[in-house]
Every structure is written in C-alpha cells, then in structure tokens.
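Tokens help. Our protein:
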Amino acid sequence: MKILKFALGQLQANCYFLIKENDCLIIDPADDAPFILEELQRRRLILKGMLATHGHFDHIMAAGEIQLSFDVPLFINDKDRFLVSRLKQTAEHFLKSNQTLIVPETLKHEVNSSLLSDFQLKIMETPGHTPGGRSFYIPSEKIIFTGDTLFKGAIGRFDHSYCDKNDLRNSLIKMSELPGKVKVYPGHEEETTIKEQRDNLLHYINIMK
C-alpha cells in the first residue's frame, strides 16, 4: 500500500491518499478540492471513499466539491454531523473571510466492511477533541491516522464546549497501548511513532486525571 500526504489549506491540514493498485481512499479531504481532483486524475486513481477523522472544517472542506465529481460518501461519525452542518460558518469564523464551499451531502456513519477489508483498516473510536473523533489503524502496515487526537509532541485541544477531557484521556490510553513501532500520521505537521510519543502520552494521561 502506498501513502501520499498533502498539507492543504490555510491551516495546513494533512490529507492522506491510501493507494492500493489504482484504488484510492482519502483520509481527511481537507481543503483545496481542485488540487485533490487533479491529483486523482493525474495519477489515474479510482476514488473509493473519504474517511473523516473528525468533523472540523479544515479536515473536510473539500469533501462536498469532490462529491460533485465522484459519487462517494464521506464516512464520518454521526456524533460529528453537527460540525458538518455548520461547516461554512465555522470556516468563515476561523479563516476570517468569506468561503465559497459546498457542504458534503452524502454522509455515512458506518464504513463499508468491504472498504475496510480492502484497505485492511480498523476503526478506533477516539473521541475527546470532538465527540465523534476516530482514528484509522492498519495493523498489517503498523500505521495509524490519528487526526487531531495525537500529534508529534502534542495532543488535540479540548477547550471547546463540545470537547470532553475524560474521553480524550481514554483515547490517549488506547493509543499508548499500541505497539511502539506503529507510525503515527497526524492531522497536522510531521509523522512520528507511538514509541517516540510514549512519554508524551503518559504525561498527558497522568495530568488529565
């Protein structure tokens, strides 16, 4: 399996292409739909679906426009649908400018079992940063996509009204129990490993009691 990373939009959210032969699964379509569509066409990839680690605008802004070209759903936890419904307003608030964007219409909570099987994905429910936070783990490849739950040297913020500190702590505990060799692909910045973040994880787990 091949993994491509693109840091997109003003907030440089990581958009990942998981590629198996000519099939492509996108984790966090982020911003800049024209760029994503051009990459799919240039590489002659068949888009099979889009997975959202969570519903924050900077991770899903391109999803609606992509759906105009590809009949694929955005798989997102139902608990984060409220964030999708206010996508435009939130983007304009944080980016301080008017945004012309298309809100994704085809949303699904349950990821197709065939899609999970084809890409050998396991879903880890990792709420806290948002109520419906998810991470996508591929044990055979020893990789995990953590969204904004875990970064290199940091964890996701939990100061919004809908965040839950206890949920985030439990999510970090789950991650701390993964094998050290597992490579972490976060929602922003550079990759790391569970081993490199073990002390960081344990630190936050302890102070969040």
In short: The mean pLDDT is 96. DSSP finds eight helices and 13 strands in the chain. The helical segments are 33-42, 57-60, 63-69, 81-85, 87-95, 113-118, 165-176, 194-207.
